[in-house]
Fold these 2 entries.
Entry 1:
Amino acid sequence: MKILLLAPHADDVELGCGATVARFVEERHDILWVVIAPVDTLNAEHMSIAEDLGLKRSKCPYFHFDVRHIFERRQELLENLFVIRSSFNPDLVIGPSLNDLHQDHRTVAEEMARAFKNSCSVICYELPWNHISFDVQLLVKLEKRHVEKKLQMAGKFISQFSIRGSYFSEDFVRGLSAVRGIQLGSEYAEAFEIIRWVI
Ligand SMILES: [Zn+2]
């Protein structure tokens, strides 16, 4: 399966669905992981994670939008996503939720929906601090090793620990994965909203 991961900022995919990414890498899916508004320190931490996962640099491109100002170039983002739709032709796109209140995340979610709603499955990862509501419509079943991998990813974002360390804490990562796992009768899971599901 060809999977496109969309990260408004360099840590969003790791935080939102890092354990699912670990599972998808293990299953040898073809992954393209795009960061839309890069920031130097976070990028280095993100690239170190991608390297650890064995992803090639060419599979982890950056767009060059400005943090908190993505909406000002919304059309350009949409056109970039159309280019990816043509060149990569994903089967599954994973990005932020339409219910995410961060302005960059919301813009990326809307343009993702516009670009891919008629061509493939589109799902949204969970970032609890950004949602007033989040519909748990899809659960990805995970093993302990996938959650351990997510914890390793979280541990790489040293630049963020003093600013918002709770997002990266072991208790939080394990706790949310366990909560979503209980909803599935599994030890661990990650939750997603569905914009479009194609089978
Ligand atoms: Zn973000």
Note: The pocket of zinc ion is lined by residues 8-9, 12, 102, 105 (CB under 6 Å).
Entry 2:
Amino acid sequence: MHPGQEKLRESAQRSVTVIGAGVAGMSAACALAEAGVRVRLVEGRSYLGGRASSYLHPGVNEVIDNCQHVLFGCCTNLIGFYRRIGVADRIHWTSEMTMIEPGGRRSRLGPFKLGPLSLPAPLHGAPSFLNARAFTFADKLALGRAMRAMVRPEAMKDTRETLSEWLRRHKQTEGAINRFWRLVIASALNAELDSIAVPYAAKVIRELFLNSAEAGSMGMSTVPLSELYAGVTPFLNERDGSVLLNTHVEGAAWDEATGKWLICTRTGELISDYMILALPFEATQKLLPHLPAEEGAEKLARQIERHEHWPLCSVHLWFDREVTDLEHAVFLDREIHWMYNKSRLQTGRGGHYIELVVSATRAFAALPREVAIQQALTELAEFLPTVKEAKLEKVALIKEVRATFGVPPGIDAARPQAISPWPNCFLAGDWVQTGWPSTMESAARSGHTVAQELGLNVGNPMNCVEPDLKPRGLMRLLSPTVP
Ligand SMILES: Cc1cc2nc3c(=O)[nH]c(=O)nc-3n(C[C@H](O)[C@H](O)[C@H](O)COP(=O)(O)OP(=O)(O)OC[C@H]3O[C@@H](n4cnc5c(N)ncnc54)[C@H](O)[C@@H]3O)c2cc1C
């Protein structure tokens, strides 16, 4: 238990209704329940997890994630949330990334290790990068130059320059742009290069490639995503809290006389001292006309209008045989970007199940189902020739049109703080101001931030926000302080 939480428990038991049970809502609810607040977690759908969840797909009769979700060692708040609900050991970690070119040539990226020997950050990944056949010598020089520039304080300032302009200015080669920036960075941020603000790209570069090998290691769940949250309801119940599923919130009124929120749902009214809106920006926008008129609400409405969605697609394929021995790979020069061997990654998963992810492409998301599947299969066979002999047993295509929000230059002004325009009400969700792009870490961080703000509001400060991993090695000297 964090300092201050015991004190919060001792104070009169306050009640909070958390609206939205995505990662943001769940992490806020669990942190608050642990601190002694009576929590009611309310979700419109019939399951927990929001955009990061799994379900039984009727077409293939398999439980699938709505898309592969990966995390990294630097996602300290998400890992803290997993730890709190006892599922941190269900994440499989890897530091290796295999890049495959059409035709099958492979390059491996990852930290250098020779027995107990390793290299200090940011040099830990240098030997494998210099060895990678996917990049020419000119690409490597250009990328080295860009990485050096990304650790400088200027890269942290949002100068309104887009990443594509910055890359041109830093003389990036075509190979570096297509095989690194477009692939790794544009897909990590799920947007095209001309729609990305430089500080967000710099953050990804520093966290995944420079700060430390630990920060850049990649985690994947060994169980379907929703199974990760199976412990959330018992966790809350054991702490005097509750979860209401299938409960869509339609509006709320602040009762000045009692100092309580009256929350209107399709199935009845809920009353609580505090309210947390842990919703995506578009759901917050829909609720705004049904919340009390407050001066700041108009500003919030204008901020929301500046957000836009980016799609993510996943193709789930079951073959009659194993088509690769890799757990995971990155594909170069084609529409499909990421391959996850789910039969190897998820324990107890039979069959030969491969998931392909196509990020940041509106064109692919607009393709008719059969065309999209055929394209994915044709491309997959270019990387993994065994696919040509294998029989496809079943397939599902998932298009998430509203997967993530974009991070174009100037977006920070449109990301609100946790404190809302209304009394005793806080905002959470991946899109609020966390400094992180649209990720589960941003959602968990916002959840922990509102829990912390609520503690302050009741006069009992507590530390819920997990600290960042400290840069290691030489990066301790090179890390910029934000001007
Ligand atoms: C296809 C896809 C792939 C992704 N890949 C990754 C990845 O690899 N790594 C990563 O870190 N992130 C990834 N993300 C992003 C990540 O899923 C999100 O950033 C994160 O899950 C957002 O969590 P949240 O709690 O802020 O919002 P949500 O998950 O959207 O949760 C909001 C919840 O509120 C509920 N709700 C809405 N309106 C109401 C209402 N009026 N009343 C009651 N409930 C309501 C919704 O049903 C939902 O459950 C991906 C997202 C998608 C869609």
Note: Residues 19-25, 42-45, 50-52, 66-67, 69-71, 248-249, 278-280, 283, 287, 312, 400, 403-404, 429-430, 438-441, 443 surround flavin-adenine dinucleotide (CB under 6 Å).
